Amino acid sequence: MRAQWTSRAAGAAERNTVRRPLRLLAVLAAAALLAACASPTASPAPAASGSAASAATLDGTVEVYAAASLQRSFDEIATAFEAAHPGVAVSAVYDGSSTLATQIGEGAPADVFASADEKNMAKVADQAPDPQLFAGNTLVIAVPTGNPGAVSTLADLARVTTVLCAPEVPCGAASATLLSNAGVEVTPASAEQNVTAVLTKIAAGEADAGLVYATDVVGRDDVEAIVPEGADAVVNRYPIAALADAPNPDAAAAFVAFVLSNDGQRILADAGFRAP
Known about the structure:
The protein has 9 helices and 10 strands. It is of the alpha/beta class.
């Protein structure tokens, strides 16, 4: 009897030994079939990062209207922006902020406006609904190299040939405030429509002195700068805005973002601009 039970047990064990690999094969086959049914197509690749996607989609030209005092730093910013966005070209117009505001108000096809003061940005508030401050600047006395007029203070500007920005231009308004604070009255030989014109006349020896932005004399060897008393109390703050009717709104927004970015702020700081 015991032999018969042993024989039956051995047979059952043998049958189980055979069935286990068969069951395993069946399970693996079923799993493969389910996997094939569940994924008839490949999973989508991860989306590109925001900056890469933006760089790939921007194209065309972005028209930037910027204060004359921004020319050197904005030329560098434009080069860096184009490198980051190969499909976009930056076209810049530099002039006095009041002139640019007038042109924008008359329908000039600008994408971005960067003003040297908040007053002129406010003139185009309908076109520039969301301006953001990005830089600050102060005034210095500029004289030709060698300082032939022996200028050292604001009071000296009243006795030498002096050129200033026109009162409606940001550098002109700031100059008027600085001179008023110092109790100095100056009758300028000419009132220029942008700070670049003032600096050009000084460098050419057509004037003994003038008031320009501190950033305008950085890196130049044809003029010298004198920091007048009270300059730190008169600070121009620069706003920038993508215009509401910008012909290239995506590129306009990207350019403004670049100016506000660490890279843009580094370029401005290197040019002598201060934080707003």
